[in-house]
Amino acid sequence: MRIQEVSAQPSPMPANPLKPILVCFSHLRWSFVWQRPQHLLSRAARAYRVIFVEDPLIATGGAPRLDLSHGPGAVTVAVPVLPEALGPEQRKAARRMLVDDLLESMGGPVAVSWYYTPMALEIYDHVESEVCVYDCMDELSGFRGAPPELRRYEAALFRRADVVFTGGRSLYEAKRRRHPNVHCCPSSIDAAHFRQARGRPAGPEPADQSGIGRPRIGFFGVIDERMDTALLAEMADLQPGWQFVMIGPVVKIDAGDLPHRPNIHWLGPKRYEELPAYLSRWDLGFMPFAINEATRYISPTKTPEFLAAGLPVVSTPVADVVRTYGGDGHVEIAADAREMAAKAAMLLGRPRARWLARVDRRLAAMSWDSTWRRMSEEIDLVRDSRSAAKPPVTRFAASGAGEVSRV
Fold first, then answer.
1. Structural domain of residue 201, as residue ranges?
2. Is-contact 268 247, C-beta < 8 A?
3. What's the predicted TM-score (pTM) here?
4. Same-domain status, 334 and 384
């Protein structure tokens, strides 16, 4: 077994060894889509040595290893790579040993263990920390392919966690009675980044969008079972002169089942840094979310991102969008394709100056910095109470290393 650097980019300056350690266990990959985990943990790295542990990759041979790379903000991304010949218990033991070895090499106790998926407890339940955080950004049990044991592990994580954050109001209402220390911390906005999409576009238009006509109605984000593809197809049929620009990776659904029309353009995933260049040439944003179990509790980060970009938005009636942005007219809400097309037509013809002024007043109170600051304060309250009550806990318990050594 070994730990190796795999980043093709120069490593950042070594993390300050005096900083406490924060280890995050995530079902999402750091390089997938820049969203809540990346925004928060890149800010956490100002105060912590952040380790972002991903689910494993499976290799055809070799020995188990941990590949390390470095994300923005000096976040260390750790990916276990396991040979396919290992059985389930050997894989669990290998993952434990690899992460244990990494933490051992860093020295010092783990200050914060941070969970995005309760399923991580299946592997890393031995990791101890001063504070255990559950950042519940989605109701994962409602997603396609959710493990049947996920609810059981979430119950265990609620027992273990010292503080729970939720990614939106609906999730907060669903979880607040399950733990005594739950806080609603909705996803926020990097307003300066998306404001680049306003006004006169800088630089050439992205090549894969330059030949698309106007008006352009755009979506960016993960394309999965949460998207109402039938609604998209009906919108495209109702308005054949409108161009629907779809940006994002397709996951958990068959790309062959996506609707194809002359005016629907599937452009694939784009880097976070590229998004303003695309949005700056759109006329409207839209969010054609299906209304199902997977969207029951979502609070889409793209809502304030569209608004910061200066784009009017029409959305299906996702609960958190309706309650947070619909009532005051920041976002138009439509229940079906015909209503959505009518609302979109109204927005295309509406002057934007007064609407943008209201949007900017609303967004002025939102930032990822303030969200992280609030979360950090709650973590510090737990750490302070723990340090006053008893000495810090040891970093982690025995990991079953002997079993791994026989792999």
1. 191-363
2. yes
3. 0.90
4. no
